[in-house]
Design goal:
The protein is an alpha+beta fold. Among the domains are: 33-103, no CATH class; 174-214; 216-321, no CATH class. It has helices at 2-32, 85-100, 104-127, 136-149, 170-215, 217-237, 253-263, 267-270, 297-308, 311-321, and strands spanning 35-43, 47-55, 60-66, 70-76, 79-80, 241-249, 274-279, 284-295. Residues 143-165 have a biased composition (Basic and acidic residues). Pfam families: DUF2953.
Amino acid sequence: MLPIILFILKLLGILVLILLGLVLGVLLLILFVPVRYRIEGSYYERLKGKVRVTWLLHIISVTAAYEDEFSILIRLFGFRLFKPVEESREDAEEMLVHAMEVTDEDAEEFSGDILKDVEHSGKKRLTEEGKLPENTASGSERTNSEEKRKEPQKIEPQKSSRLNEEPGQGSGGKAQAAADRLSSIFAKLKYSFEGICDKLKTIKEKKEEIQAWISNENNRKTIRLLLRQLKKLIRHLLPKKGKGEVVFGFDDPYTTGQVLTAVSAVYPFCHKQLDIYPVFDRQVFTAEGHFKGRIRAGTLLLIAGRMLLDKNFRGLLRKWLR
């Protein structure tokens, strides 16, 4: 008896270890196998684009394309999961046509049954013709009484209240109304001035709070840590391979220069894959490129975990969430 129990426990232990191994393997696949993406697109007075995302040797793939209309394709182990709307409509129409096809024999039998039912119902109606109630007179009397009730009633015009006013009250009422208006305008101006003063006080207090927060050494360390982690995140998300070209310009050279200044803040992160050419003498915009990259869940978790390990950042996060 004891060897049998030990053998069963051994099998259960092996099964538990196998399940734990499978769960651990799936977690490792999710964390360390990257999600790869490929982006292709162009714009020459007409937008065209295609994005493809794959994972684990193309076991899962999602392709989205846009050219005059948007389309998406999802495959699992090479099999399409969802059909486009047009194909599903065509399949539904074929099924309806196939279901509505009736053979000649079935149609003849159906028409014969209908004729028999019509003859049987006609005989029944002929036997029951004299049994209909005659209540037309009462119906006419009801309609006459309803018409009488719906006659329009005369409405006497109301006399205006202005006729009842005394002749000596007109000038005094106008003076009182003008005084009331002036007092209301003065009250509004006073209220708006007090509101502006309160806003200036709150802005000054917030400015002092921000300066005190920035001057704190722990907060400075947290800001530097956050900037480093954001830089790592951007580098990880940006494509590793590819080449693109953007040509833009406006009628006003000043606007072109302003846009170029804004783009220069992001350009150091993508200068190897993207070429930007400003045009200052005409309005133009063209773009073309193809890029490849990958996103690994483990790297994202490491960046988030590094920030959460900082005690000061956790305290600030709690305050922001409140």
